Amino acid sequence: MMNGVHFLVAAVLLALASSFAFASDPASLQDFCVAIDKYDSESAVFVNGKFCKDPKLATANDFFFSGLQNPRNTDNQLGSNVTLLNVDMIPGLNTLDVSLARIDFAPYGLNPPHTHPRGTEILLVLEGTLYVGFVTSNPDNRLFTKVLNAGDVFVFPVGLIHFQFNVGHTNAVSISALSSQNPGLIVIANNVFGSNPPISADVLSKAFQLDKNVVTYLQEKF
């Protein structure tokens, strides 16, 4: 039976564990916190993610973006173009834990395997047909895939590698919402083979079980 000392120790440990388990960024203490690029003591009064404009100086334009309906240029090696509306594009998103992206695909265009370290993504197909999927973490590495048509929705859990591929003969367009004002982006191939400075070819050769010449070739491409 637990005596008073043991109970007290257990309670302290549980309290400590809870404080770690629920640790997160503090919630906003005001209606909004419009971000500004540079701290200006005359116009910035709060700090919450980014320096914030004095609410009295905020305008509707701080919460506005125009032109997302316009097709983007997909004339590149991947045949895709991502227009991300995060806090850098819409300052009023600061502290609101949400951002938006338009993804344009040429026929057989690809948004390559990537992750968002700080946000879950929910994608809606507006036009075309996309083959999408994500891979779970080790040790299962389970692949979830689906072919989506206009009106279909798919969710990519935070931090997991995922992709979208236009399997149709026509252009495709999708809209994604992400659960962060700045979800981050890690494109697997770019980060691994295009790092600055480069990761040692010995490391990548062993990690991917590739000949060093192949690794060097891939690093030159990225």
From TrEMBL:
<keyword id="KW-1015">Disulfide bond</keyword>
<comment type="similarity">
    <text>Belongs to the germin family.</text>
</comment>
<dbReference type="GO" id="GO:0048046">
    <property type="term" value="C:apoplast"/>
</dbReference>
<dbReference type="InterPro" id="IPR011051">
    <property type="entry name" value="RmlC_Cupin_sf"/>
</dbReference>
<feature type="binding site">
    <location>
        <position position="162"/>
    </location>
    <ligand>
        <name>Mn(2+)</name>
    </ligand>
</feature>
<keyword id="KW-0464">Manganese</keyword>
<feature type="binding site">
    <location>
        <position position="111"/>
    </location>
    <ligand>
        <name>oxalate</name>
    </ligand>
</feature>
<feature type="signal peptide">
    <location>
        <begin position="1"/>
        <end position="23"/>
    </location>
</feature>
<protein>
    <recommendedName>
        <fullName>Germin-like protein</fullName>
    </recommendedName>
</protein>
<feature type="binding site">
    <location>
        <position position="114"/>
    </location>
    <ligand>
        <name>Mn(2+)</name>
    </ligand>
</feature>
<dbReference type="InterPro" id="IPR014710">
    <property type="entry name" value="RmlC-like_jellyroll"/>
</dbReference>
<keyword id="KW-0964">Secreted</keyword>
<dbReference type="InterPro" id="IPR019780">
    <property type="entry name" value="Germin_Mn-BS"/>
</dbReference>
<feature type="binding site">
    <location>
        <position position="121"/>
    </location>
    <ligand>
        <name>Mn(2+)</name>
    </ligand>
</feature>
<feature type="binding site">
    <location>
        <position position="116"/>
    </location>
    <ligand>
        <name>oxalate</name>
    </ligand>
</feature>
<feature type="binding site">
    <location>
        <position position="116"/>
    </location>
    <ligand>
        <name>Mn(2+)</name>
    </ligand>
</feature>
<feature type="domain" description="Cupin type-1">
    <location>
        <begin position="66"/>
        <end position="216"/>
    </location>
</feature>
<dbReference type="InterPro" id="IPR001929">
    <property type="entry name" value="Germin"/>
</dbReference>
<keyword id="KW-0732">Signal</keyword>
<keyword id="KW-0479">Metal-binding</keyword>
<dbReference type="Pfam" id="PF00190">
    <property type="entry name" value="Cupin_1"/>
</dbReference>
<feature type="disulfide bond">
    <location>
        <begin position="33"/>
        <end position="52"/>
    </location>
</feature>
<dbReference type="GO" id="GO:0030145">
    <property type="term" value="F:manganese ion binding"/>
</dbReference>
<keyword id="KW-0052">Apoplast</keyword>
<dbReference type="InterPro" id="IPR006045">
    <property type="entry name" value="Cupin_1"/>
</dbReference>
<feature type="binding site">
    <location>
        <position position="121"/>
    </location>
    <ligand>
        <name>oxalate</name>
    </ligand>
</feature>
